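[agent] plan:
  1. take the single chain provided in the ticket
  2. run structure prediction with default settings
  3. attach structure tokens to the ticket
  4. add a short note for the reviewer (M.T.)
[agent] executing step 1
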Amino acid sequence: MKSCFRMNPDRIFLAEVRGGETWDFYKVVSSGHGGSMTSIHSGSVEEAIDGLIERCYQNTECQMLPYAVLRRKILNSTDIICHVDVSGDVRRMGEIYFKAFDQERYLAA
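[agent] step 2 finished; step 3 output follows
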């Protein structure tokens, strides 16, 4: 992720966030790399948001940020969250978070 700052790509595609690199991903995304994508394992949109926040806290740079501030930063930098329901071998689109419609509701949570 840190090399992305130097390479100045138009978009960043990170296969999956699993730890403190989540904070690095959001720093890059919020610095003008719109259209970037990643994935996270979760049971719902709300769990995805909480999972992103928890992973950001694994990075020492943001451990002192209040939860509400970090949640707002994540939601300000995230346009869409798609939750895929998995039942056996079948995958279906479950919940969808669209920033333009859902941000205030999720900020209040």
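[agent] step 4 note for reviewer: The helical segments are 2-7, 21-29, 45-56, 67-77, 99-108.
[agent] ticket updated
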